[in-house]
Design a protein that fits this description.
The chain has about 375 residues and is an alpha/beta fold. It is built from 16 helices and seven strands.
């Protein structure tokens, strides 16, 4: 390593013209640098001096040998008298001054969320938003609430798919929700284009989607009834029910208010499930229950609670995928493919565990859905062992 004495006159001249009195720590830092880094530092000081003399930042960046954005950053660093040091101008220190990159910050926050989610259900009783606030508070670096929510949801989903959690939680709770999704339905039967409404039946323990039926707002209630039946069929076809225990808890968020059928559906759900299990009032009800289980994104689609009732197809949240109106059957096909991809890893995990009813027989989820539909469950097969 070269001693900086040979460079000191030039350095002292630059610092003198910049009006900076170097401290002992500055000289110690200079001695720690090799010749190449010393020259980079002198070039940056020369660039700052050009700015002081009235030249543009663009011109000064050429002298300093850095990009224009970096030159602006160096100028800002040098203007901060409290933090002004030679070390703050060094190339590798400048990057450190900016703090950890976004990727590093998010990774640190994910680790915080993983630890919190793994502490014996410490955050199970918290809402996703409350969990996200906790992640924000305990993360070593500042992250946005949007990022914290995504991290909290992901930590919960991963935590749910552990063998222990699935053994106790899977199949115990089912949610029927109704929410706008980022797909636009083409005009039909004299009605204009409208945002697609998704009737979602979701198993809360693992985040498995049992049914996802597309409709427009006018048909939302019929779509929900149809989704309940589709969920029954899916459970039977995939053999994914749980044999032992009381019927699963079914929570229903009734879709947008519409015709007489909507009122009849709401009354039927209250009569069969009880008023505590049915949410039927308030425009803010839509999508909240489903999002708390599976998150706001379903593949490339996005759930849009605020657009569920009277939603406009011009809503800014509709992504490019959904801006072009498509027939109902095309929208349903898009949703089917997306749901299949979402479910694949969950089904694989479930089938690796000994928690499903033997032979796909009806179990606690079938019982809950049969009760909601007011249809008796299929008779169980009687096995005679000789």
């Amino acid at each position: 390593m070269e001693h900086p004495e040979a460079e000191r006159p030039n350095l002292e001249q630059l610092l003198d013209e910049l009006g900076y009195q170097p401290r002992h720590a500055d000289w110690l830092f200079m001695r720690s640098l090799g010749s190449a880094h010393q020259q980079k530092l002198l070039a940056r000081l020369a660039g700052l001096l050009e700015i002081r003399r009235g030249k543009t930042v663009e011109k000064a960046s050429e002298t300093a040998g850095v990009s224009v954005p970096t030159m602006y950053r160096l100028k800002k660093l040098w203007q901060n008298e409290d933090g002004r040091t030679l070390e703050s101008l060094a190339s590798f220190v400048v990057r450190r001054v900016r703090g950890p990159g976004r990727k590093d910050r998010l990774q640190a926050a994910r680790e915080v969320a993983r630890r919190l989610a793994g502490r014996g259900g410490m955050v199970d009783d918290l809402s996703t938003k409350a969990f996200a606030h906790l992640v924000q508070e305990r993360s070593p670096d500042r992250i946005s609430m949007t990022a914290a929510l995504a991290i909290a949801r992901d930590a919960r989903r991963r935590g749910k798919l552990t063998a222990g959690r699935l053994a106790t939680d899977y199949g115990r709770t089912i949610v029927l929700d109704s929410c706008a999704v980022s797909l636009t339905l083409a005009p039909s039967a004299g009605h204009p284009s409208t945002i697609a409404i998704l009737a979602l039946v979701v198993e809360a323990g693992a985040g498995l989607i049992l049914a996802a039926n597309v409709s427009d707002e006018r048909e939302a209630a019929r779509s929900q009834e149809k989704a309940l039946e589709q969920a029954r069929q899916f459970i039977a076809a995939e053999g994914i029910d749980v044999a032992e225990g009381k019927p699963a808890d079914l929570h229903v968020v009734v879709g947008p208010d519409g015709d007489v059928f909507s009122a009849m559906f709401r009354l039927a759900m209250v009569r069969r499930l009880g008023s505590d299990s049915v949410t039927a009032r308030g425009v803010r009800r839509f999508g909240r229950a489903a999002i708390d289980v599976i998150g706001p994104d379903l593949g490339r689609l996005r759930l849009l609670p605020a657009a569920t009732q009277g939603g406009s197809v011009s809503a800014a949240a509709i992504r490019t995928l959904g801006r072009n109106p498509v027939p109902l059957e095309v929208a349903q096909s898009v949703v089917d493919r997306t749901v299949k991809a979402h479910n694949a890893p969950i089904l694989k995990k479930l089938r690796s565990l000994a928690i499903l009813a033997p032979g796909g027989e009806g179990g606690i989820m079938e019982a809950a859905l049969a009760n909601a539909l007011h249809r008796p469950p299929p008779p169980r097969t009687t096995r005679i062992i000789l």
